[in-house]
Design goal:
Layout lengths: L1 E7 L2 H9 L4 E9 L8 H5 L6 E8 L6 H10 L8 E2 L2 E2 L5 E5 L2 H17 L9 E4 L4 E2 L7 H8 L3
Parallel strand pairs: 6-7
Antiparallel strand pairs: 1-3, 1-6, 2-3, 2-8, 4-5
Length: 155
């Protein structure tokens, strides 16, 4: 089992995309990359913590590679949008890859550089690539948010 951490806007959608990926064993959402101890959702939303909303992914590398997870990451958001995804604005919604190993840093950097050279985007890719730091788990109501909402719908 290995771990990967991605920020690509609101963590609810990010988590839903990774949960649907074969080889992903578990996911959780939380906060990383800031300077504030044990931040709450409202702390992060207030833009005082420096954290990004992230999805942490535990995956089986025998089933899905880190490079394949990066393909999901690039596909589910606009990596040229600085501190914004859709209507969500602020540094907590930034495009960021938090790497847990030196191999992840190399793979993520190569993937970003290849995508930049591909010509897919007219604007520059602004995705940050950083070493993973302390991960703060969001509260239960944020975990698997879309799945919970789907189950709560009347038939």
């Amino acid at each position: 089992m290995e771990t990967a951490t991605f920020g690509s806007g609101c963590f609810w959608g990010t988590e839903a995309a990774f949960r649907a990926t074969k080889g992903v064993v578990s996911t959780s959402v939380g906060y990383m990359g800031g300077h504030f101890e044990n931040p709450s959702y409202l702390d992060v939303l207030s833009r005082i913590t420096g954290h990004a909303e992230v999805c942490q992914v535990d995956y089986d590398p025998n089933v899905v590679s880190y490079a394949e997870l990066l393909e999901v990451f690039w596909r589910i958001h606009d990596p040229t949008s600085l501190n914004r995804q859709g209507a969500d604005r602020g540094e907590q919604y930034r495009s960021v890859i938090f790497c847990h190993t030196s191999e992840q840093i190399q793979t993520a950097t190569q993937s970003r550089d290849d995508l930049s050279r591909s010509g897919k985007y007219e604007k520059e890719i602004v995705t940050e690539i950083q070493p993973a730091s302390e991960y703060w788990l969001a509260t239960d109501d944020h975990q698997q948010y879309f799945e919970k909402k789907q189950k709560a719908r009347p038939v």
